[in-house]
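Risk register update: the risk of archive-format incompatibility is retired. Evidence:
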Amino acid sequence: MTPRRIAIIAPTEQDGVVGGSERFGRSLAMAFARAGREVVHVRVGLGADLLEHGVRWLSLAVEPDEVDPWMLAKPRLAHAVLDVLRGCDEVHVLRFDAPSIDLVPRLAEAMRTRLWLHDHGASCARAFRHEPPSGSSCPSDATARVAGEGTCARCIEPWIERRDESSLARLRGALASRRAAAALALSRAHELLAPSRAHARALMAVHGDLRLRVVEPGVESCFLDAGRAAAKAPAASASSASQAGLRILHAGNHGWWKGSCDLLDALDADLEAGLGADATLVLAGCSVDARWTERLARGSSRARIERHGAYSPTELARLAASCDVAVFPSRLAESYGLAAAECGAAGLELVVSDQGDLPSRVGDDVSLVVASGDVRTLARMLARLAADKRAGRLRRGAQRRARGIDDCARELLD
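Archived output:
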């Protein structure tokens, strides 16, 4: 039966974070509303409750005694979510996060529950509290392990007050509890959804033979409109193009694991044929990593940096219209690459790393795919694009294939 009242449980949001999971949840809620459904969007975090775009947007605050990372079940939050979802026919849970690990089995008893495994962390052993082999999503080169545990010390160390047997025993108990809870949630959900075949394969490498359905996310219509407008715009002549340097867009959340440091290092690389004068790095989004913040503070010796914070879809589409190329050199095995899809749909040429499903965003065009962490090759690729712009050869408006979010919603409602 087609659901009439749909709920979406979004990731725990932080102010300014513009990750794909968060944006996808908001876009999907509005697409369901446009399809004539009653929609409730629930997130854990601060924010006002309101009715907008046909969606009831609710925020549930986390109490001080519920922030302990060791705490698996959060009964008050679970009861609060179940209360506001009373009367819903179907719920989409967008990430395993507080309170969703504990909540999925309870939701499944009350309504059809669809669990999205579309965040890169869904194929990470740490995120699901599994022991390795993890997915290929971890960008860390750290090999140190916590004594007696098959878990990277880099991820788990903040949880350990002391390296003594008592703390390690507590860690082992927490890992076992979370592992069991994740397995229960995966088995109780009525449907498990992944955004790409590449991510589905990564998930099954961690969790075994899951019954996964692949549903490709869609982009907001403003990106498709921008792409059509770019395709109709007259091409710039070589003489006019040479007057302006290459404008490089880097959108989404910024961190060293997103390849942001690699991109800045590539801009500063000492190449015989470099970017030329007046290159600009356009940053849209927010820093989520101290290592990137420190690197950004040093700036660039060869490019101007233009900084924009958190953005709406229309704001990103406007920024894309002012740029020549969008670069996503992520070190993560990205489950899809929503920001790349948005920029490609808007008509920008793309450069992506070889991680996860990112190569699919350029149609597996190997000339636009760089090995993760290969700064020199990325620098040469950007220099070639800068030369193409100076010569009037840069492709602009070559809209990459992307479907709209309304198409995604219709597929889910069929």
